[in-house]
Amino acid sequence: MRVLLVNTLYPPPTVGGAERSVRLLARGLAGAGHDVHVAAASSTPGRVTTEEEGVTVHRIPLFNAYWPFDPGRRPAHRKLAWHGLDTWNPVMARRLARIVEATRPDVVHTQNLAGFSVAAWEAVKRLGIPVVHTPRDYYLLCPRNTMYRHGRACARPCPDCRVYAWGRRRASAAVDAVVATSDFLLRLHEWLGYFPGASIREVVPNADEGPVDGPERPPLAGQDRPVRFGFLGRLEPAKGVEVLLRALHAVGVPGWEAWIAGRGSPEYLRRLQRLCPSTGVRFVGFVQPGWLLAQIDVLVVPSLWHEPFGRVVVEAYAHGVPVVAARRGALPELVEHGRTGWLFDPERPDELAALLARIVKDPSCLAPLARTAARARSRFGVATVTQAHLEIYDRLQSHDWLRPS
Predict the structure, then answer these.
(1) pLDDT exceeds 50 at position 405
(2) The whole model's pTM is what?
(3) Distance from the CA of 277 to the CA of which of 61, 119, 148, 184 falls in 20 to 30 A?
């Protein structure tokens, strides 16, 4: 089978987990013997095609007001221009169509479409090729891409988001199969009227490379050190770091420390440090996930926004680390309460404080959860996730698609 994956970026340029996930899928498909192409946007002029790890990568120069991944703030009028063109970008659609015409894939699987815009779907369908789409975030729903505003997760799109999303929702009728990374993300898009023409609607989690059976960690009981909690992610309000720090302040018993890993603005970092002056809290900056996960006993994911997936949970499982997570977005789909970790209401920091205190008082409770967490990693293996996608592509191929001669 020949498959074309379309994503805003393809590594080495990386801004989040989506690029890693697309790369793992591309490598998995190529490793299974399929002809895999990737189309991604580029900041440099001229189309460049390269062979990378058995995958043909087509980098297409972005046509818009600016390259959105450079640091720094931009004036409001330029942001408005960027979002306006990204609502329907005919130039990028034509550039993508040339790739489709040259490669003639059996299936086009779109992922993050920022830069390409939803015009990509019509360009592909005009050539009679089935379209699979994976919503990985809230790009189709919210211009901030977070559904988080004024310190709270949005229960429904606000008026400006409804205006922003109107054309995207209509264009989603061109999608033949939707493959979301979480049931939460799939149901949210369906509830808001997206993908009315999709004959296939499935949930396939993101893959995570590494051993299928993560290493089991030794039980903490009897070790001559405090229980070590960890946070791993961007240091920003939506990630709930303040919820964690307030809960730690209220634990009320000694015998713990917390390592906070991630980047954030200097102003926000100072705010966090003022919240919890305890010497038990250590800000370690940006580190590789594996380094932190090898040092901690419990990962805390206190998100206030609705996490579309929660890759950090899967990474914790690969290291045999149980997870304490907020009941937000897709996190309850990943964390089995009482088996691989615990869930709590982030609106109730006292609930989190009680969970943390329980762990400090009886660290031996972590050992069985660590073993179960390590076993839970298997469903996120690259081979498993690749096979799930191939089955969906095969189902699409069984349809009698009308292709132009």
Answers:
(1) no
(2) 0.92
(3) 148
